[in-house]
Design brief:
Blueprint (H helix, E strand, L loop, with lengths): L2 H6 L1 H13 L13 H13 L17 H17 L26 H13 L3 E13 L5 E15 L5 E4 L1 H4 L3 E6 L5 E3 L1 E6 L4 E5 L23 E6 L7 E15 L15 E8 L11 E3 L5 E8 L10 E5 H14 L5 E2 L2 E3 L2 H9 L8 E6 L4 H5 L5 E2 L4 E2 L3 E5 L2 E2 L3 H9 L6 E7 L7 E6 L1 E2 L5
Length: 451
């Protein structure tokens, strides 16, 4: 052991103190190895003030075991997880069990009405799908098949003979029509007849009567705005879907040519008049499905929507059931609906409005261009365009039918479409050269092809 090491040991320190007290340090004992005068000075200062001698530093132990720290951390983390402080607030409970069921009681009267309507009428509603071939004209001028698209819609069972009613625009140009009943059975649909101007079509399926549930038929002439409405159909292919609403408006006239599924079949310029407006949700696939009243009766056939994206915007329209009840039996009997009219050819509405602007006729109405020889109007004395003195005289201007105002040729067609052959109507006409309107009685007739 060196002298430096000995000074740090208690025993050695005691011996050093003895030497200091006696003043008999051995030669060289005042210097520590390698310390020179600094070490000598330190010893001297210590000797002068022994009461302030620096306590020798004692070595500490080995410290806390890392394994003990690790075990403690694991225990703490387990406790925190158990309390949910490290699991995002999720608390696990091994004793968790289902909650007791609170008794519901009876359905509210309004709910009972809706569920009863659905359960009673939904078996009458069908889902239709078909395919429409698409062609293009090739370089040789021939039509070439380039593909096909699928069409989908709704319909309802009309009678136990297997007649199904839907929209004409749903099945227009479609092939391989398939009709699925509420019980999931599917049948081939055969076209019977269509009335595109009213967007009505009839199909036939060979299903046994026991499998068919004809829809209850109501009436639309006594509907009132605010009545409850219920629509059942297959929006976006989701068959047997129920939506609810109210009658939002009556006697609406829907122009043809609306975009997407809203487009109503018919010739340009034709309109569906007397349509029922509803806010019950009607979407793509609802076309042809029934609109019902709170008694579960058919009051209309869902036909069109006003929309900018193909989805319901709360404005839907239905063909009134009174039209269906008139035209569907005729389609079943003959496959067509013969047009009813008075036997006149009308000037196009655009030409009529031009004549109003130019002052040739006093007001808007249905302007007669020519009269079918021997027809109902001819027999009643209606006049068409004719030559007068030094000028051409316009034909009679029909301004009312049975007191109902007529403002265009479309208005006249709408009114006459609702009548039957053999009925008599009173026309109010304005005739060139006559100071006062005239009234003429005309008996409606089935119209032949106009020559």
């Amino acid at each position: 052991m060196s002298e430096f090491d000995a000074a740090r040991e208690p025993a050695a320190a005691g011996r050093a103190g003895d030497l200091l007290d006696r003043g008999d340090w051995p030669e060289g004992a005042a210097r520590y190895p390698g310390q020179g005068r600094a070490a000598e000075h330190f010893v001297e200062r210590t000797a002068e003030r022994p009461e302030q001698a620096v306590e020798p530093r004692r070595r500490t132990g080995r410290g806390v075991s890392p394994w003990l720290v690790f075990v403690l951390l694991v225990i703490i983390a387990g406790l925190l997880f158990r309390l949910g402080l490290l699991s995002g607030g999720s608390v696990l409970d091994p004793d968790a069990a289902p909650r007791p069921i609170t008794p519901r009681g009876e359905l509210a009267p309004a709910e009972q009405t809706v569920t009863e309507i659905y359960e009673r009428v939904s078996p009458s509603v069908v889902h239709l799908v078909g395919r429409v071939p698409e062609y293009r004209v090739d370089a040789s001028g021939q039509q070439a098949l380039i593909g096909e698209r699928q069409v989908s819609g709704s319909g309802f069972v009309w009678n136990a003979d297997g007649h199904v009613v839907t929209n004409a625009h749903v099945i227009a140009d479609a092939e391989d029509l398939r009709i699925t009943l509420a019980d999931g059975t599917t049948y081939n649909g055969r076209p019977v007849g269509a009335l595109p101007g009213r967007d009505i079509a009839v199909l036939k399926i060979d299903a046994p009567p026991v499998a068919l549930t004809p829809i209850p038929v109501g009436e639309s002439g006594d509907l009132r705005v605010g009545q409850s409405t219920f629509a059942i159909g297959s929006p976006f292919g989701l068959d047997q879907t129920l939506t609810t609403g109210v009658v939002s408006g009556l006697d609406r006239a829907i122009p043809s040519g609306l975009p997407g599924e809203s487009a109503i079949a018919g010739e340009p310029g034709q309109r569906i008049t007397g349509a029922i407006q509803t806010d019950a949700a009607i979407n793509v696939g609802n076309s042809g499905g029934p609109l019902l009243d709170s008694a579960g009766r058919l009051i209309g056939m869902n036909t069109a929507i006003f929309t900018d994206g193909g989805r319901s915007g709360g404005i839907g329209f239905a063909v009134p059931v009174d039209d269906l009840n008139r035209f569907v039996p005729e389609l079943i009997r003959t496959g067509e609906v013969r047009p009813i009219g008075i036997g006149v050819g009308l000037v196009m509405d655009a030409g009529m409005r031009r004549d109003v602007r130019l002052g040739r006729i006093p007001r808007a109405g249905a302007l007669v261009g020519r009269v079918l020889p021997g027809g109902a109007a001819d027999q009643a004395g209606v006049l068409g365009t004719r030559l007068g003195e030094n000028r051409t005289l316009p034909g009679d201007l029909i301004v009312a039918v049975d007191g109902r105002d007529i403002g265009s040729g479309s208005d006249l067609q709408d009114v006459l479409t609702r009548r039957k052959a053999g009925e008599t109507v009173t026309l109010t006409i304005v005739r060139a050269g006559e100071p006062d309107p005239l009234k003429l009685d005309v008996t409606l007739q089935e119209l032949p092809e106009f020559p």
